[in-house]
Design a protein that fits this description.
Helices cover about 5% and strands about 25% of the residues. The N terminus is likely disordered. The chain has one helix and eleven strands; from the N terminus they run E-E-E-E-E-E-E-E-H-E-E-E. With about 210 residues, the protein is an all-beta fold. The chain is globular, with a radius of gyration of 16 Å.
Length: about 210
């Protein structure tokens, strides 16, 4: 499913001068009308982004969630180090709710952050478990935009949860599997936190990817 498709309105208010120079990067994964969102609204320099991040604060309403993840190259084995991921999702009401002080990319809401894979291709993030949209028959999901060295950003499939009744057999069959099968299993640990593991295969089923 299109990881940028929840909102297709123009990115009004985003400062174009905040975009990095990607003119020499290989164009892959197009079309994607929201992939440049990852550069807006306080993105830190790549060399300051860590392999673990918190998307939600401890005060965010909702059930806590922790995801351990790995990115591998298209061969399915080789770790993909130094890849930056922009991750965002809805709150516990199924809304992309911006914070009171948020002025840029408000359509992504405040539950958003960046993370970078380590040398073993691993990264992790903590947040709350997102809720599905309140007025649509769409599963709860996590959006991820991937920026790897030498290529423009591209979206991968939305991350879905296998216990979500909205993840039907029909939707499973329609999944594009951009980046692999991103329907993951969550289970609660002894602390009552939802935990899961995610594997992303860079370039898999991405148009224009060598």
């Amino acid at each position: 499913m299109n990881g940028c498709g929840h909102n297709t309105k123009p990115s009004a208010g985003n400062p174009k001068n905040s975009l990095p120079d990607t003119s020499k990067d290989l164009v892959v994964g197009r079309p994607c009308d929201r992939c440049e969102d990852m550069f807006y609204g306080g993105k830190p320099p790549d060399d300051s982004i860590g392999s673990s991040t918190a998307i939600a604060t401890s005060h965010e309403p909702g059930e806590r969630m922790e995801i351990q993840a790995v990115v591998v190259l298209k061969d399915g084995i080789t770790p993909a180090g130094n890849f930056v991921l922009y991750i965002y999702h809805t709150n516990n009401e199924g809304l992309y709710a911006p914070s009171d002080t948020q002025t840029i990319v408000r359509f992504n809401g405040h539950l958003r952050n960046w993370v970078k894979t380590d040398a073993q291709g691993k990264f992790s993030f903590s947040s709350i478990r997102p809720a599905p949209y309140p007025t649509r028959n769409i599963p709860a999901h996590i959006h991820i935009i991937l920026k790897e060295p030498g290529k423009i950003p591209y979206y991968i499939d939305e991350v879905w949860f296998d216990d979500d009744p909205l993840v039907t057999k029909t939707l499973r069959q329609k999944a594009e599997k951009r980046g692999g099968d991103l329907i993951i299993h969550l289970g609660k640990n002894s602390r009552g936190i939802w935990t899961g593991n995610l594997k992303i295969t860079a370039g898999l089923h991405i148009p224009g990817y060598p």
